[in-house]
Write a structure and sequence with these properties.
alpha/beta; Endonuclease, Chain A; 10-stranded mixed beta sheet; 8-stranded mixed beta sheet; 15 helices; transmembrane helix; Diverse_PLD-related; catalytic activity; PLipase_D/transphosphatidylase
């Protein structure tokens, strides 16, 4: 037998001797405690991860008090004079409802403020905006605190803010440099009082939004929903500064708003009787923990559509329109095309003359997609007020069952770098009311179909 063979034959004996030795040694008490601690920490970590990934225990997703949800709108008189009916309570009345019932605090998020209408030789102001301002003054005199969050580069000359400082006893303003933080503007329109009742919709803090511009919004009263909306406002407030030219970095803002936890979202909506509710926001960089991006909320509606989709927006375009140069952005349009292929009837209504009509040719060439333009008689500086009488509503209703009422126009910029807020509902009665609005509008003499 060779030397190598002897070595190989001897190897099993060595192996057997090794196997006879103890292979497992019981951990010490210290090691056991350490192992159990690691298991416990792992369980806690996994729970945190689940929460961060938008998962919440079911018992947290039911409204604890009664809820009132109501569609509100602004319909200019020019429409009503032509047999065009108002279907809902007017916007200014909903604002007054929020304001007049405040006992401790009123919070407002706005793009800009132009609430003081001036008469012209051809047009006389309604007093709706004046009623709102006087209501705010009365609540301030009664000890109610008023906080206003506004874009530091917003439309207007900011003279309203100086007037508010003189009129309101308990007034605080914060300016948000949204262009520096995200590259867009603060476009949300929110009025909330006492964490119990609020308005969200298309109407700016502008007298025109209460009389001359076609607007859609939602009034909600409920403690659970109000507390959730207050979290949205506090997140915005964290991004503001006391001075108009103040600058806060995104990193500084994140330290504040990333700590804000939101209970309800796409994965875990709030249950209100037989309905569902949650709030969505833009832009992605500003989303607090568990908040759903409003682009996701809209696309999920389109993907789940089975029979019908009704959309209204001032703007609609498959572009990033404020970038230089403009960029193609088809996140929404590609899903609308897919829906039309599935047989879903899609109707879109926008303001006329917003963009080159040639942009929509390929979209309306799709079967089941119809596009409508709305145009009211417009005014200009020579014969009346400027920047008035247009359709400014922003919503989507799907299958008469689910809908989104938003503050964002439907171009890429509003979902990528502009601050917006959306109310997402699965609520048949309310969503069917939006369908009624759509049918009323496209059936009027002020709307024409794009061919």
């Amino acid at each position: 037998m060779s030397e190598g063979s002897e070595h190989l034959l001897g190897q099993p004996e060595v192996f057997m001797e090794t196997m006879d030795e103890p292979r497992y040694k019981k951990p010490s008490k210290f090691q056991q405690v350490l192992i159990y601690s690691l298991f416990a920490l792992s369980a806690v970590y996994m729970m945190i991860c689940l929460l961060t990934l938008n998962q919440r225990p079911p018992q947290d997703t039911y409204a604890k008090t009664a809820t009132n949800i109501e569609i509100v709108e602004t319909v200019p008189d020019i429409l009503v004079q032509n047999e065009y009916k108002r279907l809902h309570r007017e916007t200014y009345l909903a604002w007054l409802d929020v304001i007049n019932r405040a006992e401790s605090e009123i919070c407002i998020a706005a793009y800009y403020s132009t609430m003081f209408c001036v008469n012209t030789p051809t047009n006389i102001c309604k007093d709706y905006a004046a009623q709102v301002v006087l209501a705010l003054q009365a609540r301030s005199d009664a000890g109610v605190k008023i906080r206003l969050l506004i874009d530091g580069n917003g439309f207007g000359d900011f003279t309203d803010i100086d007037t508010y400082k003189q009129m309101f006893l308990n007034f605080e303003v914060a300016y948000m440099n949204t262009s520096a933080l995200f590259g867009g503007v603060q476009h949300s329109k929110i009025i909330i009082s006492d964490k119990k009742r609020f308005y969200v919709g298309s109407a700016n803090l502008d007298w025109r939004a209460l009389t001359e511009v076609k607007e859609i919004g939602v009034f909600i009263e409920g403690e659970t929903e109000g507390a959730e909306m207050q979290q949205v406002f506090e997140q915005y407030w964290a991004c503001g500064t006391p001075e108009r030219n103040g600058v806060i970095t995104l990193k500084q803002a994140e330290k504040k708003f990333k700590k804000i936890y939101n209970k309800f979202n796409y994965y875990n909506p709030l249950h209100i009787n037989d309905s569902l509710f949650y709030i969505a926001q833009s832009p992605p960089k500003q989303l607090a923990q568990t908040r759903t991006h409003d682009l996701q909320s809209i696309i999920s509606q389109i993907i789940n559509a089975k029979t019908s989709i009704n959309i209204q927006s001032m703007d609609y375009s498959p572009l990033m329109i404020y970038t230089k140069p403009q960029m193609y952005w088809d996140n929404i349009e590609s899903e609308l095309r897919a829906a039309s292929i599935r047989g879903v009837k899609v109707k879109i209504m926008i303001q006329e003359n917003t963009y080159n009509p040639q942009l929509y040719k390929s979209l309306t060439a799709m079967k089941n997609i119809e596009l409508y333009f709305m145009k009211m008689d417009t005014l200009n500086e020579e014969n009346g007020w400027d920047h008035t009488r247009l359709t400014h509503s922003k919503f989507i209703s799907v299958d008469g069952n689910s809908c989104v009422i938003t503050t964002s126009n439907w171009t890429g910029d509003y979902f990528t770098n502009t601050q917006g807020t959306s109310i997402v509902l699965e609520h048949s009665a309310l969503c069917q009311e939006l369908d009624q609005v759509m049918n009323r509008d496209i059936g009027s003499t002020f709307v024409k179909k794009y061919l």
